[in-house]
Amino acid sequence: MSTGTPYDVHSIRQRFPILNRKVKGKDLIYFDNAATAQKPVEVIDALTQYYSYYNANIHRGLHTLADEATAAFEATREAVKEFIGAAHSEEIIFTKGTTESINLIAAAWGEACLSAGDEIILSSLEHHANIVPWQMVAQKKGATIRVIPMNDQGEMDMAGFHALLNDKTKMVAVVHASNALGIIQPVEEIIRSAHQHGAVVLIDGAQSSVHLDINVREMDCDFYVFSGHKVYGPTGTGVLYGKKHILNSMSPFLGGGEMIKEVSFEQTTYNELPFKFEAGTPNIADVIALRSALAFITELGKSAIRMHEDVLLKYATAQLQKIEGVQIIGEVENKVPVVSFVAAGAHPQDLAYLLDNNGIAVRTGHHCAQPLMKRLGIVGTTRVSFGAYNTQEEVDVFITALEKSLKMLR
Ligand code: PLP
User: Fold this and answer.
1) Residues 373-385: pLDDT tens digits?
2) From atom 12 of ligand 1, which residue's Cα is the shortest distance away?
3) CATH of domain 45-298
4) Helix axes 348-356, 392-409, angle to 10 degrees
């Protein structure tokens, strides 16, 4: 929820200590937010606070520090529940990131629910994290992977998707917003149609969770996963949301402490949700600090942040279009603030190097989406991605540096 105060990007920037640093003697311009976002001071403080005042293991302790740490850890679970509109806090499982969340689902759901001949539908735009775990379980279970085609702009081909659905489809696992191109995909239609065929749907929210309003109940997805570090939170934190009845039908992923009720050498009974999927000592400090990151987003308001980022997206797109030989890949209306482009006569890696000399951080390469790059017939792109603290002036500096770099390379 927004406080109703105007969006003041300059005071927001003051909450991010890293934005004061210089790179190669220049003010840092951080345009690699899709890879990981920077952290506001309240997230950094939450980490220091935990280690300075109440570092303790959680859930099992009967002392003040353990109580305080447990309460703070569980408060993040509540905050995540609110952040994505889940019905129950036990539907929120902490992992170390999107990758681990998808691996957990592929292994534990796949073990319980996949048989030989079943089909898993993915899309052409998936991050490797939403391809490889499915290949691993498909191989083990004798299931087949089918791929939703896309058009040349990077939008899923919905007719192609509908044609893939059949009574062998057991899982549809798709990205909400593509990390390589930024395009928001029609997940509502995908979920509705997949459910009509009795399939379960996983939405990879690694890129959508920070920019779009997420309500998993309204979306009606069965699983939604995202990474804490992309929502201004610490690395090593991730979320797996799953509908309670589906999580209950799955076997545990990892065995050990915390996930059990009783253990003997003859037999072990498992703990309730969510602990059944949280074996061992979790990433306590970082999970606690994740709450401050979600509070930061909620305080500014996702719609206010999105309006700000959208201005940057449109401005950067328009400026890039003016540069000769620059081609934006994935030029559609409905995007998160990511612009991917190729430039004639300039290898993305050389560009990244020259931009870094100007203090500008961008990402280049295949963006962990090699099948997508192959489909587009390119080896990689240069990607700029914006966050709540970026400014139009930074885009101007970037465009000038890009033009200068292109002149040097051509
Ligand atoms: N899925 C998408 C769409 C992503 O953008 C990323 C990371 O960039 C991932 C999955 C993997 O996230 P992580 O590396 O945080 O596990």
Assistant:
1) 999 999 999 999 9
2) 98
3) 3.40.640.10
4) 120
Q: Residue 409 C-alpha to ligand 1 middle, in angstroms?
A: 31
pTM above 0.85, yes or no: yes
Residue 60: phi and psi, rounded to 5, are: -100, -15
Quote the pLDDT of residue 4. 57
For the record, the structure tokens of 140 come out as 């083990």
Q: How far, in Å, CA of 365 to CA of 275, rounded? A: 38
Please, are residues 362 and 355 in contact by the beta-carbon 8 Å criterion?
yes
3-state secondary structure string across 123-154? ECCCCHHHCHHHHHHHHHHCCEEEEECECCCC
- According to CATH, what is the number of the domain 9-36+301-409? 3.90.1150.10
With a 6 A CB cut-off, is 76 part of the ligand 1 pocket? no
> What are the structural domain ranges in the chain?
9-36+301-409, 45-298
Domains 9-36+301-409 and 45-298 share a fold: no
Residues 254-269: pLDDT tens digits?
999 888 899 999 999 9
Q: Does the beta carbon of 227 sit less than 6 angstroms from any atom of ligand 1? A: yes
CB of 97 sitting under 6 A from ligand 1 = yes
| Closest to 227 in 3D by CA, of 212, 210, 244, 211 | 210
